Task: structure prediction
Amino acid sequence: MSVARNVWMLPLILLTAALLPAQEASMQCVDTGTTTAAVETQPLRGPDGVTAVLKVTSSDDYSKNSHLCSAEYKLVIRSAGADAPVTVDLTMTDGDWGRNLSLRPEGFSHDGKRVFGILSEPGKYPWTTLFDYDTAASKVQLVDIGKSFAHIVTPACPTTVNVIGTTEAGAIVLNLNSTKGCAPATHWLLNANHLVRPLPRGMAILRLYGSPATVN
Result:
C-alpha cells in the first residue's frame, strides 16, 4: 500500500541510531545492490508470552520513470507455542535515497489485544504514522499524526507523540511533548475521525500492558 505524503505532517525529533532507545530502530533508505537493507526493533513483550517486532526493509523501487528508494514496514507477532509468526504488512513508502526510516513499538493495549507503534520519516516531506493492530480481527488501522494535530501545532514546532494507553471504551490516549515549549504537554484523546481533543479531566486511562495503571 502506498502512503500519500503531506507537507503539514507533524515533524519529529529523530536521534541517530546509536542514541536511540532499545525499543526504537532507525536506518537510512539504501540498497546494498545485492540484498535489501533492513533493520528491526528488539522484541516487545506482551501477555502470555507473545512478542512483537517492527521491521523495515529498503530497496530501489525499480520504477521506469523514477529512481526512488522504497521502504516496507512490517509487524511480526510471535505467540507462545505457535508454529509460525504472524507477519502484518503495515505500509510502504517511496522517497529520496538516504532519508531516515524510524520505527518505534509503543506497546500492547492493557488487555493485550492491540499493538501500537509509530513509524516516521523526516526530511523534505516529513511523514509520521501511528499504527493500531487488532490481533483478534487481524486488522491494522493507520493514523496520520500530522493531520491529527494540525490544529494544535505548526510544522515549525518540533514535537514527539507517544501512545500511553486507551480509555475504557477503547479510544487511544496520546501524550504530546515539545522541547521548545511551542505545544502544550498534555494528554489527548484520538477519536474515530482521527482528530484529537484534550483528554477530559477525570477520565480513566488504561495504561499499556506492563505500565502502572493511572487515572487522569
Remarks:
- The chain has one domain: 17-215.
- Helices lie at 145-148.
- The radius of gyration is 17 Å.
- The chain has a mean pLDDT of 83.
